[in-house]
């Protein structure tokens, strides 16, 4: 008996009513051709490469213009100061924003200009004496110490940038002009620039963007007020203490101490160096008195002035402050050290509002509601 031949796949499919491969119908799913699937994967890979390249190009661009961005950020700080003072004048007088801002600017010009005129001659002479006395004190140090200081200064990028910053007066003036005009324009029309930032955010997140800018601006204002009060206190106490000890250039050294107080933790140590060198050129006993004076002033500032201010201002964790100053000095030099703390304030505000609150759904910890 002959065995019947086995039906082929096409015949079996036709017999069972199935649709042959490559055809549609009867609800059967059509498989994507391998060539088309390969083109889709290539498009996805190309899109990812373009995204990575775009992020890299943006990071490189921001790095190249980092100096300009730091100047603009400095202008933002001064603009916050002008805007808050303008708000106080408006509340007291009921004037329009433009007139109130004009009064604030005139008052600041008179204050700075009048103060500079009253003690300008004395300050200029003392700054000149300070440079001569520091140079003479350095010459009195042992050769091994001088060589070690010179070697260490070469290993500190921000030290060489500090020297260039002090010698390049033209660039300093140009940067100051940029900061001044940026602050004026921002303070004159803050709403224009705030709306410009908000328009970069999708519509569903624009209300949150307004809130983030308000919290960041309020935190920077509180931090700025705390720093200005601490700088004034440290500068005044230093000048008076050095004058009572009979140290030359007491006013100039007080000015240096007040300005370097803007750099938390590290600034006081830098401010003490020229005073100790001058004291060393007079007598070893003066070195001990000056060191004790700076130690007492820092204890008063850290245990009395700062705790009183922290009831109303932003309190940064010390580790974050140290890390921000170190990173700012390495990446951006002396200007980065000056601006490291306010930039850390902004970063902490963004992390707390956009990540801890929005993503994790937890209450924020910075800035605290009672700060």
UniProtKB/TrEMBL annotation:
Keywords in alphabetical order: Membrane, Transmembrane, Transmembrane helix
Localization: Membrane
Stretches for region Disordered: 1-34
Pfam families the UniProt entry points to: AI-2E_transport
InterPro entries: AI-2E-like (IPR002549)
Main subcellular localisation: membrane
GO biological process: transmembrane transport
GO CC terms of this entry: membrane
Membrane protein topology class: Multi-pass membrane protein
Annotated TM spans: 69-87, 99-120, 165-187, 223-245, 251-280, 287-310, 322-355
Family: Belongs to the autoinducer-2 exporter (AI-2E) (TC 2.A.86) family.
PANTHER family: TRANSMEMBRANE PROTEIN, TRANSPORT PROTEIN YDBI-RELATED
Name of this protein: AI-2E family transporter
Organism: Azospirillum lipoferum (strain 4B)
């Amino acid at each position: 008996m002959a065995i019947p031949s086995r039906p082929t796949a096409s015949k079996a499919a036709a017999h069972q009513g199935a649709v042959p491969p490559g055809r549609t119908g009867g609800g059967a799913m059509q498989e994507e051709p391998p060539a088309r699937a390969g083109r889709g994967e290539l498009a996805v890979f190309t899109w990812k490469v373009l995204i990575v390249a775009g992020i890299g190009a943006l990071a490189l661009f921001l790095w190249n213009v980092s100096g300009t961005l730091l100047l603009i950020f400095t202008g933002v700080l001064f603009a916050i100061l002008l805007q808050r003072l303008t708000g106080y004048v408006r509340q007291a007088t009921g004037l329009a924003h433009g007139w109130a801002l004009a009064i604030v600017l005139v008052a600041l010009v008179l204050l700075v200009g009048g103060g500079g005129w009253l003690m300008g001659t004395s300050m200029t002479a003392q700054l000149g004496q300070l440079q001569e006395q520091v140079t003479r004190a350095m010459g009195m140090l042992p050769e091994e110490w001088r060589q070690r200081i010179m070697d260490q200064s070469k290993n500190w990028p921000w030290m060489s940038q500090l020297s260039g910053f002090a010698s390049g007066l033209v660039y300093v003036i140009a940067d100051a002009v940029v900061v001044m005009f940026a602050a004026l324009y921002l303070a004159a029309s803050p709403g224009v620039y705030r709306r410009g930032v908000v328009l970069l955010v999708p519509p569903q997140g624009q209300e949150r963007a307004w809130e983030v800018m308000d919290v960041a601006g309020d935190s920077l204002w509180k931090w700025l007020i705390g720093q200005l009060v601490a700088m004034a206190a440290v500068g005044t106490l230093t000048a008076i203490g050095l004058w009572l000890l009979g140290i030359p250039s007491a006013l100039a050294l007080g000015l240096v101490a007040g300005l370097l107080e803007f750099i938390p933790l590290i600034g006081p140590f830098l401010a003490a160096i020229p005073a100790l060198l001058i004291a060393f050129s007079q007598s070893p006993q003066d070195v001990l008195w000056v060191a004790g004076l700076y130690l007492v002033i820092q204890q008063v500032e850290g245990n009395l002035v700062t705790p009183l201010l922290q009831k109303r201002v932003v309190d940064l964790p010390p580790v974050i402050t140290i890390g921000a100053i170190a990173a700012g000095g390495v990446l951006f030099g002396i200007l980065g050290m000056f601006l490291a703390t306010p930039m850390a304030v902004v970063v902490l505000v963004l992390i707390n509002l956009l990540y801890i609150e929005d993503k994790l759904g937890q209450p924020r910890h910075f800035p605290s509601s009672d700060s």
